[in-house]
């Protein structure tokens, strides 16, 4: 493991955020406070996730108390914890969440905050009740100067390039928070015994090529030909290739967990357009964009099939987009097949 032991220096996420603030004079601390609010919310959601399996055993434990509705409840609980933390902090005037119905953003009146936060509070939540990894994804924008004091949803509708920060938390065999402020990517592992995230993955770089591809192959028949050919190519034996084909499939069905594994080990994650869903399934603003910023900052690539995800101009909070994301050379391969160049 990379956690320093035996008297080595352990850097907490709190310390890291404060140090980075000193590197960026003029930020007045509002942004650092916002990050710290998100960290607190992540710890609370982690606690809720970790006890989710006990709810059925102990019945009425408070917030999550209706048998059979645990999974839905945990989505909502995570949403509420994040909203509470962000509202308390006062740095955020507008929140967009996957769990907030019908595209209604949460707009705070008389808000002096400079930031917008868009998030998916509990991604992959169909995996909750079978004890498989889930996650939280967040994206932070600065409110344009001429919108301050009269913030509307339009204040949030900026391309992913304009994100000032993005991150995710994966509630896996351990809880890891990974984020970027556009200056590299760093990962922190929660030490539950002290309740602190510790810097465990400094300066993450994703391999240029990995061994794994992640896609729901059950949808094969609805794919465009280029994607079918790409997947077939990866499955075709070629012992002299580097790495040797066939590649390996890994698909958890939690975007955060699939993305995190591929980021660390190298790989490509695909959620393509298909006949029924011309823009795929994943949401641009709080799933694709934050992961795209992270992967580019780690040396990888993120495409829709028609250009970089980060260049897509959003039309609405809950827009979707096709996603080809991960190791640079693997996304290059995919785009090559899609465009018919290969
Ligand atoms: P959710 O936000 O409702 O959980 O849906 C998004 C999830 C992703 O985490 C995951 O990668 C994808 O949906 C899986 O979809 P599918 O079951 O179609 O493969
Ligand atoms: Mg989701």
Keywords:
342 residues, carbohydrate metabolism, 8-stranded mixed β-sheet, 5-stranded mixed β-sheet, metal-binding, single chain, binds 2,5-anhydro-1,6-di-O-phosphono-D-mannitol, 30% helix, binds magnesium ion, alpha+beta, Fructose-1,6-bisphosphatase class 1, fructose 1,6-bisphosphate 1-phosphatase activity, EC 3.1.3.11
Describe this structure in words.
This protein has 342 residues and is α+β, with helices and mostly antiparallel strands. Strand 6 and strand 7 form a beta hairpin. The radius of gyration is 20 Å and the shape is globular. Bound molecules: 2,5-anhydro-1,6-di-O-phosphono-D-mannitol (AHM) and magnesium ion (MG). 2,5-anhydro-1,6-di-O-phosphono-D-mannitol binds next to strand 3.
